[in-house]
């Protein structure tokens, strides 16, 4: 967290350039939010927020949360989008993976935000009930709890929710407009194209860990002119057999990139696999790579749509 003096200097410079961050907007009578089966009430915008998982942290920075973001954890890559990179670097990293309950308490949050349901793993002592008993409200990105398919609309609804809770409605409206505009521009460019059958390969050797039909990533692929060959599986990510991969004969493979799992090894594995190697995608060497955080609910959703559209259709 920056020093008071540094913040005052930064604020003065922003005022001079006309780019000062908007002050939190108080909600009359408090804000009541239904989120993933829990109701939370906020008398005023939280002032000390901890965000677990990189994609959730990027959303909060893009909204303009600034120095009210006092901790993050579990980064998925080392290169946040340029629009949030400088501020992301200033957020204290509480843990390379998830922090302990004690480490969370030490940050003195008045709100903890989770990107994945695993952020609030009860068996590891970070359950939402445990945090509530400590007086700390929690919010979870809706992709982790929706019963049906999630997509861009899920993301935009969560952005609006954070705008309400954090008193950053103007930032939420701006961010939602930018995301919607970029995605709609891609869809106009792709009007009339024939979708490409795609196998998304995350990991796995005995079985393939792949993208199912309920995740935000599936919606990004669809809007980019792709057809997920496992879109019929009701899960965000799921395991499938290599026999199923071969039977569905993908025309292109998207390799998922994240820390600790080099994509070069994934491609080599597919090229040497007795079943995967015979699919049109691998046989023709039609590979694309995408960061994991672009396939999850976050500000990189339009990046995913633009990247996939270029790789699949050259547009």
Automatic annotation (TrEMBL):
Q: Does Electron transport appear among the keywords?
A: no
InterPro entries (UniProt xref)? ABC_Transporter_SBP, ABC_transptr_periplasmic_BD
Keyword annotations? Signal
**What Gene3D superfamilies does the annotation carry?**
Nitrogenase molybdenum iron protein domain
- In this chain the Fe/B12 periplasmic-binding domain maps to 48-315
Instruction: Name the SUPFAM superfamilies on file.
Output: Helical backbone' metal receptor
- Signal peptide, first to last residue: 1-22
Q: Note the PROSITE patterns from the entry.
A: FE_B12_PBP (PS50983), PROKAR_LIPOPROTEIN (PS51257)
Q: Family assignment?
A: Belongs to the bacterial solute-binding protein 8 family.
Record-given protein name: ABC transporter substrate-binding protein
Q: Please give the organism.
A: Saccharopolyspora cebuensis
